[in-house]
Design a protein that fits this description.
Length: about 425
């Protein structure tokens, strides 16, 4: 094994897939040099319980911290000791929520350190990060039609679908390549069908490259269902549909209602729950994420009691990568799946602990990029190593998405005859 002692750390500015300033971190050991970029560089798409993402000064503040305090702290440490290095970020920050240095500061550096440790061992990062010996790739679960907060601007409310993500999951493929072919076909087919469904549609997409029409959510699901049938007729594969409701963006605390601006309807929490239940039953939905505002835990519990045997009831903003909240929601029986976003926890070690607790509770794990992501594929190796069952992303289009998807393709080829996909926990499509 080559030496994995850290010799230098440098952060520099780059630009992410949303044409915004981001950063990358280069870690040099005695035997290798690697780089990694954070999975998120804009604070708008954040849940109530997430950690702080940037320090004062934003992206440049992160770069300055990494090139000074973080660099001084980590030089001379062993990249192979991920836990000690990740604990160092908490020591530097002084809080458990990265209020001072920001989670992206820790995330980008922590990922680069993990890559350096793997390179020093001469093995792929996914093997270095593996939780157990069974390694497979996740199923791809992209968002095809956008809505909700994905444009990040109040000016879009009422002009686009109210629900944030309209999702497809391919079923029956033999390889990640087959899944990608299938979801790409659905993506392009939806683009064609929208020309008739929305006469005013000009081909616009949101910040995750998903189609962004001026129709309501039922019409979106009907169109997505049709596109999936058209593709299934030509390929030996089927599809299940899902939603990331992004309910926090719909909730109006002052009025105590969920506001569907495009639909022109305000729903009480009970009415909102019934509406989502109708969508689950009408479209045989397999995946439901962030169905309710983060504090409406009783509604999550009711949804689980109604659909938990057949549907992945998933928490993203609800859990926020937080071990304490995960334990609380597991005790309540609020969800049976969890979204894994590395910069919600802030470091590789803390995210791994979150995944391990999900596994212990029998939750499905949904690896995910973030809106405004960077064209960096480090996350793919970690999601494979942690055994996540699916990878949820924006549309199949976009350079930051393609970087990760193509990494899954390469890993799938490297695995050869071993099981291609990770198996679902509990509920299966």
């Amino acid at each position: 094994m080559s030496s994995s002692i850290i010799k230098d750390i440098v952060a520099r500015p780059i630009f992410d897939g949303g044409a915004r300033l981001s950063l990358e971190v280069v870690v040099t050991t005695e035997s290798t040099m690697v780089r990694a970029a954070p999975s998120y560089s804009d604070p708008r798409s954040s849940g109530k319980y997430e950690i702080a993402h940037f320090p004062k000064g934003g992206v440049q503040g992160s770069i300055d911290l990494i090139n000074s305090i973080v660099r001084e702290k980590l030089i001379g440490m062993d990249a192979a000791d991920q836990q000690a290095i990740d604990d160092s970020f908490l020591e530097i920050d002084g809080t458990d929520t990265f209020d001072n240095i920001g989670g992206n500061t820790a995330e980008a550096t922590s990922m680069a350190v993990a890559k350096a440790a793997a390179a020093s061992r001469g093995i792929p990062l996914y093997r270095h990060a593996a939780i157990d010996g069974e390694i497979g790739v996740p199923h791809i679960m992209p968002n095809i039609i956008g809505g909700g907060a994905t444009m990040g601007d109040e000016g879009w409310k009422g002009r686009t679908p109210d629900i944030q993500d309209h999702i497809v999951l391919p079923v029956g493929a033999k390889s990640f390549h087959e899944e990608m072919e299938a979801v790409c076909s659905v993506f392009h087919r939806v683009g064609v069908l929208l020309q008739d469904a929305d006469p005013h549609y000009t081909g616009g997409r949101d910040e995750e490259y998903c189609w962004l029409p001026g129709i309501d959510d039922v019409a979106c699901l009907e169109l997505l269902e049709l596109a999936c049938r058209d593709v299934a007729d030509t390929q030996d594969i089927s599809f299940r549909l899902g939603l990331d409701v992004g309910a926090a963006d719909l909730w109006d605390e002052k009025e105590g209602v969920y506001v569907y601006s495009r639909e022109g309807v305000k729903r009480t929490p009970a009415e909102h729950a019934r509406h989502l239940a109708d969508l689950v039953e009408r479209f045989d939905l397999f995946y439901m994420e962030d169905s309710f505002y983060e504090d409406h835990v009783d509604l999550y519990v009711e949804q689980m009691q109604q659909f938990g045997d057949d549907v992945l009831v998933s928490g993203d903003d609800l859990l926020a990568g937080n071990l304490t909240r995960l334990e609380q929601m597991a005790e309540r029986g609020a969800v049976n799946a969890a979204v894994i976003k590395l910069n919600m926890a802030g470091t590789v070690s803390r995210t791994r602990q979150f995944v391990e607790m999900c596994d212990a509770n029998g939750f499905a794990t949904i690896g995910s990029c973030r809106t405004y992501d960077s064209p960096d594929d480090t996350l793919s190796d970690l999601i494979v190593g942690w055994g996540c069952q699916t990878y949820k992303c924006g549309s199949p289009a976009g350079g930051e998405h393609a970087a990760k998807q193509n990494r899954y393709l390469r890993i799938d080829e490297e695995l050869g005859d071993t099981p291609t996909f990770n198996e679902f926990h509990g509920v299966t499509p």
